[in-house]
């Protein structure tokens, strides 16, 4: 199953630079990740970094994050899926991706993340971005949508953060933002990188 999904993602990255897939992962895995995200309590304020200096700036983003590590259960299952995608992208596109990092993101009511790029021009550390949404029965009136822009800053996609929706895009090509949420919103943001840990 994953091979077909990996192929679809790879083709879209070549053709369009991004892809949005509904119900991308098995429902059981998405539900377990959602439960984990909701039950975890040790989130910290998300930082912003355009250099080696990480800082908190709640005027630019107000979500909280929890970094994902191997845990022998649901987090490891998700990381294994992403490792398979890393290997597939390297084999198909020769990207030289060295590792994947990810965190849970929690947005409380009113939280947002202003428009930004995940990789700055000339900085090739982050190459491919992934976002997996974990919100059951989320509706557009709940806010918290992801807006994706092209390189001319024209809006090209608006993504409702429904559980199971996976977004994958080239990190240095697509500015994006998260609109203010009107309820508690969970996701996993991750990046395939070419530097060393």
Mean pLDDT reading: 93
Question: How are helices and strands ordered from N to C?
Answer: HEHEEHEEEEEEEE
How far the N terminus sits from the C terminus, by CA atoms, comes to 30 Å
For the record, the count of structural domains works out to 1
Number of helices: 3
**Highest CATH level, the class:** Mainly Beta
CATH architectural designation? Sandwich
Q: Profile the largest sheet.
A: 7 strands, antiparallel
Provide the CATH superfamily. q2cbj1_9rhob like domain
Task: Give the C-alpha Rg.
Answer: 16 Å
Low-confidence blocks of residues? none
Shape assignment = globular
Helix content: 10-25%
CATH topology: Jelly Rolls
Q: How many β strands by DSSP?
A: 11
The portion of residues forming beta strands comes to 25-35%
Structural class: alpha+beta
Strand order, sheet with most strands: 1-9-6-11-4-3-2
Question: Quaternary state, please?
Answer: single chain
Could you please describe the fold and organization of this structure?
The protein has helices at 2-15, 27-39, 74-93; strands at residues 18-21, 44-45, 64-67, 99-107, 113-116, 126-133, 146-149, 155-159, 166-170, 176-178, 185-193. With 197 residues, it is an alpha+beta fold. It contains three helices and eleven strands. The strands form two sheets. The chain has a seven-stranded antiparallel β-sheet, covered by helices on one side. The two termini are 30 Å apart. The model has no long low-confidence stretch (mean pLDDT 93). The longest helix has 20 residues, at 74-93. The protein is globular and about 40 Å long. The chain has one domain: q2cbj1_9rhob like domain (Jelly Rolls, Sandwich), CATH 2.60.120.620.
């Amino acid at each position: 199953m994953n091979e077909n999904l990996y192929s679809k993602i790879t083709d879209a990255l070549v053709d369009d630079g991004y892809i949005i897939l509904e119900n991308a992962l098995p429902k059981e895995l998405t539900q377990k990740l959602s439960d984990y995200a909701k039950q975890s309590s040790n989130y910290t304020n998300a930082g912003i970094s355009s250099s080696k200096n990480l800082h908190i700036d709640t005027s630019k983003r107000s979500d909280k994050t929890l970094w994902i590590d191997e845990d022998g259960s649901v987090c490891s299952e998700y990381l294994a899926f992403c490792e398979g995608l890393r290997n597939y992208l390297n084999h198909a596109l020769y990207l030289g991706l060295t590792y994947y990092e990810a965190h849970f993101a929690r947005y409380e009511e009113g939280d947002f993340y202003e428009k930004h790029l995940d990789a700055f021009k000339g900085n090739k550390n982050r190459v491919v971005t992934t976002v997996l949404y974990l919100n059951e029965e989320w509706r557009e009136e709940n806010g918290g949508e992801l807006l994706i822009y092209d390189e001319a800053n024209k809006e090209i996609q608006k993504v409702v953060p429904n559980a199971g929706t996976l977004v994958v895009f080239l990190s240095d090509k697509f500015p994006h933002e998260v609109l203010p949420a009107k309820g508690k919103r969970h996701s996993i943001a991750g990046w395939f990188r070419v530097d060393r840990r």
